[in-house]
C-alpha cells in the first residue's frame, strides 16, 4: 500500500449547494479534510452557484451534472441533493467512472437503491461510499467492537427511543417539498432517523420482520409520518423496539442492547454503560439455589457480584464525524484505506424504512424481503393523492 503524502488531495465535486453542500465546502475550505479540496460546485439554482463563487473564489461552478462529470475538474463527487435523486446521480457517476459519496439516505424506495447497488457491482473498480457519519462516531465504533467480540453474548433485545429532533410547524412550512411523499419520500424515517436505522442494523444485525404503528400528520400538518413505533423480530426470540418522533419538545435518545452475557445502555449518543456478566445469564439462573433466591427477595443478594461495569465516553467536536467520512473517502481513493461505510450498505436503512411504512399502511407484520413492487405501488398512491409530484417507477435511468 502506498504512503499518502500531505500534498496529495482529491478534488471533490459538490453536487447541490444547499445546507449540506455548503457545510462540506466549508469544512474543506477550513482545512478540516487534509486530503481533499473543492474541485467544483454544481447546482441548478443560479443564486446558489453565485453564492458558491462568492464563498469560494476561483471554484468552478456548473448548472448541469453531466457537464461537471465531463469537465475534468473533479476526481470524485458527493451528492447533496434531494433524496429521490441520490440513486440516479450515483449511477451516472459510477457509469462515468467517477467515485461517488452518496448522502444519506441512499434513496427513498428499495427498487431504486437496488438498481444503484447493481450498477455498483458492475463497476467494482469505481469507489462507492455513503455518508453514514455516525459510523465514524467513536462511541458507536467502540460499541460495535464490544458486540462483535461477543462480550455481551447473543442478542436478546434492542430498544431505541430517539425523539431528540423536535420540529415546529414552521420547519415544514419553509419548503413545499419538505415532508411530502412526492418531494421527500416520507417524514421522520427518511429525514431525521436514517442514521439510527443504519446503526441499529450495523450493530445488531438485520431484523427478519417488522410490525409498525406510524402516525401520519399526528401532531403536525403534514401528510407523512411524524411518529413511529416499530417492533423488530430478529429471529430466535430476539426482538427490538424502535420509537421516533418529531413532536417531543423534551426529547429522548436512549439505546439499550441486551445480550445473554451483558447489556449496553447508551444515553444521548454520547456515553455508554456496559455490563459484562461473569457467566451466561441462564447459567447464573440455573446455579442459584433456594437460599440465594430467598436472599434476592429479601434484598440480601447483590446482583453486582454477577457482572462487571464499564463507562465509555468520548469528546465530540461538531463536524468531526462528517469530516472523518470525507477524509476516509479521500484516503480510500489515494491508498485503498477501507471505507467506513461502503455505499452498498445504504440499502439496509432504506429497506427498513420501507418495511416500517408498508407495515403501518397494511397494519400487519411484514418481512424485510417484502414485495418491493407493492411498497412502490402504495407509495405512488400517496404521491398521486398529493397531486403535486410525478409518480415513481421501479427503474432508475
Kindly describe this structure.
By secondary structure, the chain is of the alpha/beta class. Helices cover 37% and strands 23% of the residues. A 9-stranded mixed β-sheet has the order 14-13-12-11-7-10-9-8-15. α5 runs antiparallel to α13 and α6 runs parallel beside α9. The model has no long low-confidence stretch (mean pLDDT 95).
Feature tags:
alpha/beta; 14 helices; six-stranded parallel sheet; 397 residues; 37% helix
Short description:
This protein is an alpha/beta fold. Helix content is 37%, strand content 23%. The protein is built from 14 helices and 15 strands.
Radius of gyration: 23 Å
Mean pLDDT across all amino acids: 95
Shape, per Cα inertia axes: globular
How many extended strands?
15
The fraction of residues in strands falls at 15-25%
Largest sheet data: 9 strands, mixed
Distance between the termini: 36 Å
Share of helix among residues?
Answer: 25-40%
What series of H and E elements makes up the topology? Answer: EHEHEHEHEHEHEHHHEEEEEEHHEHHEH
Strand order, largest beta sheet: 14-13-12-11-7-10-9-8-15
Q: Any chance you could write out the topology, listing elements then pairs?
A:
Blueprint: E1 10-15, H1 19-29, E2 36-42, H2 46-55, E3 60-62, H3 65-70, E4 76-79, H4 86-96, E5 100-102, H5 110-122, E6 128-130, H6 138-148, E7 155-162, H7 169-173, H8 188-191, H9 194-204, E8 209-216, E9 225-235, E10 238-245, E11 253-259, E12 262-267, E13 271-277, H10 281-287, H11 290-297, E14 307-313, H12 320-335, H13 346-362, E15 366-367, H14 372-386
Parallel strand pairs: 1-2, 1-4, 2-3, 4-5, 5-6, 7-10
Antiparallel strand pairs: 7-11, 8-9, 8-15, 9-10, 11-12, 12-13, 13-14
Amino acid at each position: 500500500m502506498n504512503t499518502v503524502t500531505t500534498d496529495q488531495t482529491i478534488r471533490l465535486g459538490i453536487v447541490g449547494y444547499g445546507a449540506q453542500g455548503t457545510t462540506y465546502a466549508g469544512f474543506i475550505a477550513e482545512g478540516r479534510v487534509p486530503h481533499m479540496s473543492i474541485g467544483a460546485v454544481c447546482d441548478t439554482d443560479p443564486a446558489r452557484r453565485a453564492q458558491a463563487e462568492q464563498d469560494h473564489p476561483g471554484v468552478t461552478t456548473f448548472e448541469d451534472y453531466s457537464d461537471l462529470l465531463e469537465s475534468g475538474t473533479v476526481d470524485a463527487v458527493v451528492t447533496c441533493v434531494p433524496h429521490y435523486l441520490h440513486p440516479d446521480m450515483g449511477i451516472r457517476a459510477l457509469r462515468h467512472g467517477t467515485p461517488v459519496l452518496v448522502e444519506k439516505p441512499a434513496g427513498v424506495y428499495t427498487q431504486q437503491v437496488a438498481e444503484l447497488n447493481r450498477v455498483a457491482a458492475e463497476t467494482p473498480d469505481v469507489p462507492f461510499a455513503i455518508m453514514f457519519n455516525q459510523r465514524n462516531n467513536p462511541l458507536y465504533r467502540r460499541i460495535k467492537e464490544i458486540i462483535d467480540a461477543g462480550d455481551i453474548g447473543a442478542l436478546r433485545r434492542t430498544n431505541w427511543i430517539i425523539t431528540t429532533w423536535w420540529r415546529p410547524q414552521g420547519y415544514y412550512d419553509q419548503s413545499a417539498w419538505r415532508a411530502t411523499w412526492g418531494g421527500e419520500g416520507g417524514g421522520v424515517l427518511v429525514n431525521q432517523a436514517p442514521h439510527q436505522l443504519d446503526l441499529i442494523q450495523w450493530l445488531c444485525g438485520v431484523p427478519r420482520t417488522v410490525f409498525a404503528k406510524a402516525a401520519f400528520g399526528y401532531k403536525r400538518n403534514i401528510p407523512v409520518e411524524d411518529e413511529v413505533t416499530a417492533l423488530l423480530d430478529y429471529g430466535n426470540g430476539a426482538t427490538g423496539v424502535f420509537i421516533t418522533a418529531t413532536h417531543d419538545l423534551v426529547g429522548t435518545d436512549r439505546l439499550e442492547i441486551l445480550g445473554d452475557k451483558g447489556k449496553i445502555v447508551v444515553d444521548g449518543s454520547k456515553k455508554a454503560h456496559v455490563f459484562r456478566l461473569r457467566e451466561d445469564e441462564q447459567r447464573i439462573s440455573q446455579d442459584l439455589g433456594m437460599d440465594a433466591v430467598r436472599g434476592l427477595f429479601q434484598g440480601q443478594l447483590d446482583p453486582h457480584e454477577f457482572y462487571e461495569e464499564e463507562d465509555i465516553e468520548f469528546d465530540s467536536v461538531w463536524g468531526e464525524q462528517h469530516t472523518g467520512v470525507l477524509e476516509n473517502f479521500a484516503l480510500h481513493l489515494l491508498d485503498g484505506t477501507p471505507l467506513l461505510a461502503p455505499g452498498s450498505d445504504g440499502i439496509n436503512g432504506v429497506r427498513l424504512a420501507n418495511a416500517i411504512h408498508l407495515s403501518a399502511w397494511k397494519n400487519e407484520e411484514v418481512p424485510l424481503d417484502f414485495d418491493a413492487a407493492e411498497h412502490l405501488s402504495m407509495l405512488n398512491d400517496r404521491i398521486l393523492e398529493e397531486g403535486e409530484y410525478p409518480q415513481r417507477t421501479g427503474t432508475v435511468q
